[in-house]
Amino acid sequence: MSKKRGILFTAVLVIFCICSLMLTHSINAAQDTKPVREVSVICRSADTEEWSTIKLGIDQAAKDLGVDANFITLTGRNNTNEQIFLLNREAKGGASAVVMMPVSSPELTEPVHNALKNIPIVAMQSKVSGIKDMQIVACDNVGMGISLAQEIVREERHPAVPAVILRSSVNSSNETDFQKGLQKGLRGRNLFYCDIPSNHAEAAAAVRNCFLGHADAFFVALNAETLGLAAQVKETGNFKIHLYGAGRTNQIVSMLEQKVIGAIAVENDYHMGYLGLKAAVDQMDHKKHSSIKINSRIVNSSDMYQPQNERLLFPFV
Amino acid sequence: MIKDEIRKIKDRLQHSFRRRSFQFTLSLSFTAAAILGMAAIGLFLSMQYLSGSEKQIAQNNQQIVGQVEINLNSYLRNMMHVSDSIYYSVLKNVDIQKDHFNSQMSLLYETNRDQIVSIGVFSETGHVIDAEPLNELKSTADVTHQEWFQSAENRIENLHFSTPHVENLFRDPDYQYNWVVSLSRDVELTSAGTMVHGVLLVDMNFNGIEQICSKIGIGKSSYLYIIDSNGEIIYHPRQELLYSNLIQENNLKAASYQDGAHMENFQNKKRLITVKTVGYTGWKIIAVTPLKDVTRNSSQYRVFAVLCAALVMILLIFVNLFISSKMATPIKDLENSVKNIENGNLDESKISVSGSYEVQHLGKTIRSMVQEMKKLMRDILYEQESKRKSELDALQSQINPHFLYNTLDAIVWMIENENCKDAVKMVTSLARLFRISLSKGKTIIPVSDELKHVQNYLTIEKMRFKSKFEFQIKAEPETLSCSTIKLIIQPLVENSIQHGLECADDDGKILIHSYLHSGELYIDVMDNGIGIPPEEVDSLLKEDTITVHGKGSGIGLKNVQERIQLYFGKKYGLTILSEPDEGTTVRIHLPAKPYESGFQKTEGV
Question: In Å, how far are A192, A200, A210 from A165, measured between CA atoms?
Answer without folding.
Answer: 6, 18, 10
